[in-house]
Amino acid sequence: MLVKLETQKVIACIKSLGAELCSLQLKQNGTEYIWQADPGYWGRHAPVLFPIVGQLINNQYELDGQTYQLSQHGFARDMEFEIVLQNSQKAVFRLLFNSKTLEKYPGKFELFIIYTLQDDVLSIEYKVINQDDKTIYFSIGAHPAFRCPLGAGERWEDYYLKFSAQETTVRYLLHKGLLSGECEEILQDSDTLPLTAELFRQDAIILKNLKSKSVALKSQKSDKVIQIDFARFPYLGIWSRPNGGAPFICIEPWYGVSDNRNERKIFKDKEGMQRLEMGEEFCCQYSIKIS
Asked: Which GO terms describe its molecular function (predicted)?
């Protein structure tokens, strides 16, 4: 089922499958900002990542002496969510644990994804409630993909990322989807990262604990802007196809990250893992502003 939100400026569409944002359009000129899932490049729009972010060693993890199988980014993105509230500017989607999720992830959870559209800003809130009689552990993250370039006559290389603060930081490197334990400098007292084909030759860019609260995708040739507010998210992933030429870029706020290839697979000790006690809830939110 498709849910539509609308203001005077923007239309947003969300699928109940995966509670996935699939369209974000500026009404003034009809510009589509969300990547339209061309399977020739990447067949998704903006999946939610739960109960893990990234990849596990051999797609396995250990918890309380048991070994479980779980594929990259978890299962929520491929599950049908219940629509529990819907009006012109807000939609609430719900996913509850079941017998199939317990086979892969032995935590009794309730996951809400809440979309709120105000003016030209779409806010996306994740709420995880522990419905179990024990502590549960999880990671959660966003994976929105944006069309890039957005305008006719533009090239990928015309675009750049503008951070809200000057950053001196490294990118944490991946090897076959896992953290390698190595890093390299990517920003040195700068707030600007130009897009180049070379950026993703070593897979996604993973940044940790940035000073910036937001980042904007901008072009040297047009005034179209996508701004992502990711305040309080400890990780930011930036990704496109590693071979270049893919007309999209993902800007991904995360609470969690892939396994380190050099570490054991104990789930509760995994980097970025969130701990949630019985009856407690975890909330986080990011937003997308388009112009």
From this structure: carbohydrate binding; isomerase activity
